Amino acid sequence: MTMFSPANLKRLFLILVITAVVAVMTGTPGSSTASPTTGVHGSFLERVSWFGLFVAPRWLLFTTLGVIVWLVVSLYRPRARSIRRGIDTALALPKALATKRSTRVALMLVALVVVIFLPKFVHESFWMYLIVEQIGVWILLALGLNVVVGFAGLLDLGFAAFYAIGAYTTAWLTGALPAPALFHHPIPTLWVIPIGILAAMIFGVLLGTPTLRLRGDYLAIVTLGFALIIDDFVETQSGVTGGGVGSAPVPHPALNLGFWHFHWGITPTPYYYLCLVFIIVFIIVFTSLERSRIGRAWVAIREDEVAAESVGINPLKYKVMAFAVGAASGGFGGVMSAGLVGIVNPGLFTFQISVNVLVLVIFGGMGSIWGVALGAIVIQTATSYLDNYQPWGYQINDLYMYIGALLIIMMIFRPAGLLPSRRRAREFAAAKGDEQVHTDEVLTGDQP
Amino acid sequence: MLTVTDAVVRYGTIEALHGISFDVQQGEIVALLGANGAGKSTTLRMVSGLHAPASGSIIYEGRDITKVKAHEFVSMGISHVPEGRRVFPQMTVEENLEMGAFRRSGPLRDDIEEIYVQFPILKERRKQPGVNLSGGEQQMLAIGRALMSKPRLLLLDEPSMGLAPMIVETIFSIIGQIRDAGTTVFVVEQNATQALRLADRGYVMENGRIVFGDTAKNLLTDPRVRAVYLGESVEGE
Predict the structure, then answer these.
(1) Cys-Cys with B56: which of A69, A112, B7, B73 at CB 3.0–4.6 Å?
(2) So what's the ipTM on this one?
């Protein structure tokens, strides 16, 4: 294929159309009161800085970017096979090392040392706070959703509901809600941790038992509905939940062992360690669950529910279990967030949150505990950075456009995720390849 | 061993089985025959607990199992090989076999080796994912997986479906061996000639009813069997 073959020119055209769409979407919004062409003018004719190098109109910037993409693609396509082979050979050694148990253990130890000493390197309290609130809590959410989506293969679009339950349970039991605390006796925030986890798990069972008889899309819709109900409830029942304003301040956790007092207060570092301990505990619990009999039942249900039933697995029981187990870390995320932020309000539990958690799981690698943890770290670090520094004229409203583009690129080049689980990678490869017809089969009309 | 009496199955308002009765005695192979859409698969779905009958009863070893759920069958000694093989696609052959013993504990090594003796090809392929096996191998794996739970009654749904005649021959001879080893077999099959050569008794279905039943020997020569399969059943389809 030459550079200027009709097929390649068609590709250039397509890329330029996409670039124009991106230019409009990232450009100045239109206005109904001023000239209706404000948006178009702003998107194409406005002069902007090119990454701080020089200033020129936007249309020129975007066309240049489009042409660069086109050049890269047309240079890559004819050489794709040899480039891919080169990458494979280059990665052969690291891959072989990575599968060795000793390297894995070493990597884990290095990671452990890094996370333990991380607060020593992060001097700004602001960033430490973001690390706990934007990364730590989100790792917990992603780990929990991974059990549901990655292990058991159930699409849950309402995971934020469990996050909300954890957080509101905390606010309720510590006496921060308009509704009186249980037995009119507020309890310390730290004690809420086990109760919050338990409450989320109970809701997992309550939601799961009737709905998990449904499969696929139907289940996704019902979970979405459940999340919307919770969202609606906390938003409108202001007498119970505080409504849109949210709760009164939730006391910061404190520990009193008689001989030793510790108060979490407003500095984020102690929360960091609390969160870290629980992340490690959840990782250990989920890893051992994955390898257990329960984990094998989840794989069986994910791969073929009828076959699973035929070997004696009760699908409903194990699916409900996945919901409850996943809800546990989601619920703890809620407790953590309430204790750290010191206030609970409905803005934390929108549909957008559920989708964001799902993005982390898909990006990191469904079914891979280390994958989703890494996915959460990468995406949440990037979004926190972009939101707070706003480099290159980045606008917060555009975040989801970039995340969408990132997911599309992932689906093309690494569909099983950043660090895919071995089995999931195989499933994706199998879904991609054509079905084989073997010599001992005959094709009949009534094959499933 | 298994007695079905006046079973009626409905899908919504449509009655698929209009009160069927049959029985399976210990140690025999019973074949359920019939053309496409006669109600064979519905019958097996009912007998394996996937779809409860609206009325009628299913008695197994003197126990009423009409309302028992599919996943509880395994622990009662009934194993079901579902239609279309249904091996776990991304589990290896060996993992598939291990899943077959999900409901019992204890070491599995000896039992797996026993399955490998019966199906040597599975041993060769034991590290391969199920999806990479050929149809015949998948059928053997599905049967082997069902045997891992040590059933007293084995339910087979269309074991010859989509397979070439030579493999069908092999599979049927294995089903014979399973019976000889002491497991009762109830098989739903479209390939009447093959099934009747192997079975001890057979029932023939038409339009959601069992129209007649007899010993396999008699059915093989019965002209009504051919009539049920309009256009006459030719060996190997």
Answers:
(1) B7
(2) 0.86
